[in-house]
Amino acid sequence: MADQSIALMAHLMRRAGFGAPYAELETRAAKGYEATVEELLHPETQPELDNDIMLRYKTEWVNKNALEGQQEEWVFRMINTKRPLEEKIALFWHGILCTGHAKSENPRQQNVEFDMFRHKGMGSFHNLLMELAVDPAMVHYLDNCMSHKGAINENWGRELLELFSLGVGMDGKLNYSEDDVKEAARAFTGWTVVNAVPRYPYGRYLSKFVYNPKDHDDSVKTFLGETGNWNGEDIINIIVKQPAAARFVSRHLYNFFVADEPQVPAWQHTAPQDPEAIKMLEAEYFRSNYDIRSMLRVLFNSDFFKNARFAKVKSPVETVVGTTRLVGDFTFPKPGFNALALTIRYMGQDLLNPPTVEGWHTGKEWIDSGTLVERINFTADQVGNVNLPGVRDILARLRAEGPTLSPERLVDGCLDLLGGYKLAEETRSELVTLARNGGELQTGAADFSQRAAQMLQSIVATTEYLFA
Amino acid sequence: MASNTKDPVLVVLQLSGGNDGLNTVIPYSNPLYYDNRPKVGIPEDQVLAINDSIGFHPAMGPMKKLYDEGKLAVIQGIGYPKPSRSHFRSMDIWHTCEPTKVGDEGWLGRALRDLDPNKDNVLTGVNFGRGLPRALAAPGVPVASVGSLETYGVLTGIEAEDQRTMALETFTRTYEPMLGKGPVLSYFAQTGLDALQGADILSTALEGYSSSVKYGNDDVAQYMKNIVQTHLANLGTRVLYTTAPYNSFDTHAGQLANHTRLWTQTSSAIAAFYDDLKEHNATDNVVLLVFTEFGRRVHDNGSGTDHGAGGCAFVIGDAVKGGLYAEYPSLEAGKLLEGDLHFNNDFRGLYATLLERWMGLDSKPIVGGTFEQLDFL
Q: Which residues on chain B are in Cβ contact (under 8 Å) with A269?
């Protein structure tokens, strides 16, 4: 059953989406890898999510007023969408171009930004930054509405350069100076929002971007060595041309979709682990006129991607949503959405609410003695529940192999059905011993479900399973 | 190792976001303060004066009380050369004592390694909150990171006793071979094994705790309470850490209201922490450090303040000689650093003071050099 094309498809779906149960992997593998990549890159070819029934049960999702409600709704979307890459790219940008609920306090407004990420997140990076600069949640989050002619607030100017487009430095050189930060801030004066209607008593209203020319500093500015009477759009035009912007986008795409890199502040001092891959992506950035979709096409079809199996530590979202998709749960209204969303928070990723504008620490840093315990406990509970449809399907496929299973075949079968996982020799050997200790595995016996589920639990508790 | 409640214990409260030192320890008699803070300056009559030139923010009543009792040391003008105004970078610098390169070992991780080199006690260091601050991270050093003291444990969903035992045995036997398989896998494996051991011990921490002290409902107050509970459980913990979440001290806008709320909550949490220890006769061997990653710009931006450089830190405890330490930085235009307060003492000197004079450790390898210490201990 070790079908290489299914294992490759499992890898693609884990990265471009949130994983898939075996039946879905079979269907997609039959369609073909490149064809699947194209389908993922064009979410508009797949139906929109139908959540009418959910909205009848979860009425708080309708007005999008509550943080946890919006976390729940996004988790529901990620589990049930037919457009996995659309949700994944929204998650990608949310973790980089951050707004956070702790300050924004307007989930409804943040959702406007997330919809922009869904629909524009694979378009041109230039357009994305332009949309971001006029997004009311972002204008408020980074205080650009408090930045005035003659009295600038540097927050947006700084983070635009440091965290959203260039990064502090590259190849041993700084990418911008403190003066550039101040000039960028000056260029964006006047880019503000109308006063939001207060939250009480009717709930959160949406704000609107408005350009106030009277508050705009229209004097000459020098930014990244170019001098002119710059306004905000000019700053963005100058930014996207920079080699540092190509590096920024390429490195982030690599870090999120291919393999864990060190944390972002190290990037100014640390070369990419695969410089050739980054060069390919940078070249595509310029060739395609800053088009993220084109860069992703190069990425997903590359050997460096296909060979990067289990090179990323799963994020909390990927852990929870991936497991839930696998076991086939939360496809329909039922109690427990809130607890599910909170589980992601307890694993260290509070959707809509990254700890700072710098986003989450990813990769190995998702794991510490607290979050590791959360992951193991959650995942084991899910795959150990033989009543869930996805688990029943796994058990049925194992039974279909024959009246008995060898201990090795139980372990390997579970690994295949979970999505083509591989274990270190010692780990596999321990699990084979565990399977053997229970005596002969008869697929028709009353205890088969429990023994197979126990094997699934032991697999998901391993260190290997932490990786995607 | 038998635990000894009289071993010195260090508690650290991290104020994330860059607490505005100038509005925390206020130079109210200096006209330059008001010149530079037309919108965000605290009126002189609201300042809680501690002498005729400096006072605390009005929301810091409980801190002023500790100061008057001689238990609060104010470290003025603290920072490091070539300050970074990036949250991420500056906090990393405070955590790793590496101002010029990216470090991945924390000062407290190293301290824990010195305190418990044979890893006799996986609970020598405990963090309360989500994720492990880099300050506590060092290869091979177990640190429990507890999001919720009430529910911390491994594979707690497997209810059948014998099944759970078998699962935990398998868990241990699959994790042990990963030690030594490269840094990432070793880290995961060690983390798992230590978590298992720590969870077993911590499950007893809440038994037998009772107190008349009321804590606030905010995260900081609740975690300070967990810190007291863990300390009183006598598990041999020597370093306890927690963080004010969400970069809450990053007061770019609306500072007057936000900063007031923050210090009301923080002062109250610190007071409850100290009072709770006192109720249990446990104040003599605990010292609390309160720090932030940078101060903020001297001139306000109309509603708040932007990232700056030199700031302030606090050290609290019975063992502390209260008072003002180092110097208040000058606000004169010619003496500022790109519009920010200069530092006059390096934070590594503060750490060295705590490490040597409180924890009894050699500070040089931990902070990476010799830095002038302060005499609050």
A: 101-102
